[in-house]
Design brief:
By secondary structure, the chain is an alpha+beta fold. It comes from Sorangium cellulosum (Polyangium cellulosum).
Length: 390
């Protein structure tokens, strides 16, 4: 399989589809072990999928945003946990365009490097000669078991005071740590996306050299990918997981309906009007939300290629489309779970897993209702007040 995947390194979507059957076959192991099995990790590394947003000069795909969305969606349809871990590592690889060149080469120059971590500023960093002294604890580090490097967001301190940006917000910077230098704390006992292994990690008084730190204020590379606002890129990537999970749920219900005869009925589930309506509604909701997302992504990418910076309204529409995709996907899964009847409640059911996974995914800050409010404020001519920023 590795040789075949190597040939697909320039086609991430085809590569993700090629790996999907393996992820599906091993998803029970993924769930029980709370981590991706080595064969799945190895396949993703061989295909270069963890490095989709690494620049070509460092051996990455430097893929356009739509490509990453479709690759994550394809893998998530097979296993939500695998898709989520891919989204985290591939999305985080955007940092390669913001790191100083020496740090980018050190971290991303190795084709086998996998980056995880969390951008939330749960750490404290103090400036010293040549870098920063950092301590902190970060939660929700998906894929930490297979990661080789971890990112931790930090607030910058000077003595006993927090440094402030010109707008009065705390100054922040993101630090890279070798995973081997971090203490991993087993915290991931959850209902959904169990296989992501999103444990905590800590560092204490770690020295981080300048070349292993960055901010999103200004990219070091000027390729179009790195000119887009970071969270305008990351929000669609997050929603791709929910889209894929919903696609898998619809497929699972269709398969179930072809052989299940509900209790007290001589007819198959597929012959019931309620099941027919549920499948149609789920399909319509999923397809329309997906098209809204892809249209927003394509328009933003086209303007970026043309050298036009995104307007505030475009950034708001990207966040709106991403949140709408996630919530629509969750509703589609709910329809399929209900249509499956009692068959859906067993832990052996794909519908039961999809229900847990999609509702875990949509609990992320990029899938919650405040994103609708922020987009609505912009559309009404008001200031957007939201974290992370549009």
């Amino acid at each position: 399989m590795t040789l075949k995947l190597n040939r697909l390194i320039d086609d991430p979507v085809r590569a993700a589809r090629a790996i999907a059957p393996l992820a599906r076959a091993l998803r029970d192991e993924t769930e029980h072990q709370r981590r991706l099995p080595p064969p799945v990790v190895d396949a993703l590394v061989a295909a270069g999928l963890f490095r989709m947003w690494v620049p070509r000069e460092l051996g990455g795909a430097e893929a356009d945003p739509r490509t990453l969305v479709e690759a994550v969606e394809a893998l998530s349809a097979a296993d939500g946990a695998a898709g989520w871990c891919l989204m985290i590592a591939a999305g985080t690889s955007l940092s390669s365009g913001y790191l100083p060149s020496a740090g980018a080469r050190e971290i991303y120059g190795d084709p086998a490097s996998i980056v995880g971590g969390r951008l939330v500023a749960s750490g404290r960093a103090t400036r010293v000669d040549g870098g920063y002294r950092v301590s902190g604890r970060w939660g929700f580090n998906s894929g930490i078991d297979h990661a080789t490097w971890l990112i931790g967001g930090c607030v910058l301190w000077e003595g006993d005071r927090v440094l402030l940006r010109p707008n009065g917000a705390p100054a922040m910077r993101y630090m890279f740590f070798p995973k081997a230098a971090c203490d991993v704390i087993d915290t991931w006992s959850v209902g959904g996306l169990r296989g992501t292994g999103s444990h905590d990690f800590t560092v204490e008084d770690a020295l981080v050299p300048d070349e292993r730190s960055f901010s999103f204020d200004e990219p070091c590379l000027r390729a179009p990918l790195y000119r887009l606002p970071p969270f305008a890129l990351l929000a669609p990537a997050f929603s791709a997981v929910a889209l894929g999970i919903a696609r898998g749920a619809i497929d699972a219900l269709v398969e179930l309906a072809t052989h299940k005869a509900p209790c007290g009925s001589g007819a198959l589930l597929r012959d019931r009007a309620s099941a027919q309506a549920a499948v149609a509604q789920a399909e319509a909701q999923l397809r329309s939300a997906r098209l809204f997302l892809l249209d927003a992504v394509d328009v933003a990418w086209g303007d970026t290629l043309a050298g036009r910076p995104l307007t505030l309204e475009q950034r708001a529409l990207l966040r709106l489309a991403a949140t709408h995709a996630s919530t629509s996907a969750a509703h589609a899964v709910d329809l399929m779970y209900a249509a499956g009847g009692a068959s859906s409640i067993y832990t052996t059911s794909s519908l039961e897993r999809a229900f847990r996974d999609v509702h875990t995914a949509t609990q992320h800050v990029l899938g919650q209702s405040q994103n609708y409010e922020a987009a609505g404020r912009v559309l009404l001519g008001l200031e957007a007040k939201i974290t992370p920023p549009l």
